[in-house]
Amino acid sequence: MIKFGTGGWRAEIGRDFQMSNIQMIGQSLAERIIELKEDDTPVVIGYDRRFLSENAAHWLAEVLAGNGLKVLTMHRSVPTPLIMHTVKKRGYHYGLEVTASHNPSNYNGVKIIVEEGRDAPVSVTENLERRCCSLGNIKTIDFEEGLASGLIEYIHHPFNEFLDDIIGILDVEAIRNKGPRILFDSMHGSSTYPFNVIFYTTRCTVDQINANKDAYFGGKMPAPTAETLKPLAEQVVMGHYDIGMGIDGDGDRLGVIDSDGTFISANDILVLLYYYLHEYKGWKGPAVRNIATTHLLDRVAEGLGEKCYEVPVGFKYISSKIDEVDAVLGGESSGGLTVRGHIHGKDSIYASALFIEMVCKTGKAPGVMIRELREKYGDSTMIEYNVPLSDQQKARLIELFDEGKKNPDEANAKLPVFSQEYDRVNYIDGCKVYFPDDSFVICRPSGTEPLLRVFAEAPTRAQAEAYIEAWKKALAE
Fold first, then answer.
1. What is the pLDDT of residue 234?
2. Separation between Cα atoms, residue 398 and residue 419, nearest integer Å
3. Are 124 and 138 a contacting pair, CB within 8 Å?
């Protein structure tokens, strides 16, 4: 059964990520397009560097073309933000990116992009799921036949519009005047070309590690975390670089290393960029974050006379709220963000460019800036605990969380015993408990992996760990 999560459909290669299921997705989308008379624009298809990604992109193209639909595809791997930008810029109805984003190397998947370059809403993905359950024949033609007929066509120079729009917004002179030395870890992903073009254009010195294609991502998770970027941190210090940057396999998550080797977390990146855009570039307006992201962003926004809006996990909720309230930016603690006027999804290539501009214009190292903000708006520590989650455990938790939406008092009575009384509980996405000192703990099943995720933020690490331990004890019972 095809089941979409918060970041598209993801499945284990060889178990569920296989040709027949990928063709089912293609046929379901084709039938939707034809039924809704949305065949007036082509479907653009991209793919990352994972195992079978290019093959899967071809299988999708063959099915769409087999249904008489026009398909635009790529000669090479591209990051997800490029597909979102292309759909938005050219006014297409749909785009597809074959990727499993930050999942382990034995996974792959398909992201559905809809009009304006947005992540497909639940209404679209549920419609595709239903169609997959009742498909008849799958129509397909050979890829080469599709090329010969003109139904399948390669996009030549697909990066031009994307890069021009990013460079056009940057303060290029500010970056050129500083010319920072950057060490870039592309994590064997598809962001190498656009990252290098942007920073060579702005006269930076860029050296790179892990630029080769490796379907196993060097044996590490392809996500820019403190753990996976340890080699980058060591080389930044040894090589006396001004900054290190790591971007995940499909280009939507960013990690930063300061010149002293300090890891700048996704939460800190989000706070720093919001403050910079608001105070230095004059982009006034609120901020948006998901429920598992730092409350420091709220305190900074309040200090600037603005508001920070909280939404469920899933970038479609962030982008929708950005539009609704005209927010400066929105993001999440997992490493993705976007800014007003750009695409409606995560783009770490653009975020990295803005981050370098920030460092150059302020003349301050990111570690110095975040310490100043914490001193002014209040310090806190966030920790995360992940545990494998069986289908039975997941069903039990979802039942509790659903009960919380209907009968919160009854659900609250089943919560763990915490070290202090809480203010309120939110069941909008999992279970989030808020405490009087602006600390919180949230427990929710992952929408992309068979994991339970528990996040806690508090003024001290010990307090955050106590929240985590309370949930661990409850889950073990």
1. 98
2. 24
3. no
